[in-house]
Task: inverse folding
């Protein structure tokens, strides 16, 4: 495995986690959102997008969970 392979696998996991996070938000699964965000940081753009997604799904509890996630 080369360094590029490792970076690609990390990026794939990150993209998969992001997709699963969006699905959890859309499904209104607060506990899953908390679990997926635990120990992670979000960049400003990503955080704003996820907050908007939570607002669109009408879930203020998930919105608060995302807002409380630290930014990178």
Result:
């Amino acid at each position: 495995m080369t360094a590029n392979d490792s970076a690609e696998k990390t990026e794939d996991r990150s993209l998969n986690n992001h997709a699963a996070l969006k699905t959890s938000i859309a499904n209104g699964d607060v506990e899953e959102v908390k679990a997926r965000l635990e120990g992670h940081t979000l960049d400003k753009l990503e955080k704003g997008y996820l907050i908007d997604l939570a607002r669109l799904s009408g879930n203020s509890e998930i919105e608060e969970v995302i807002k409380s996630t630290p930014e990178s």
In short: Residues 30-71 form one domain. The mean pLDDT is 88. The two ends are 29 Å apart (CA to CA).
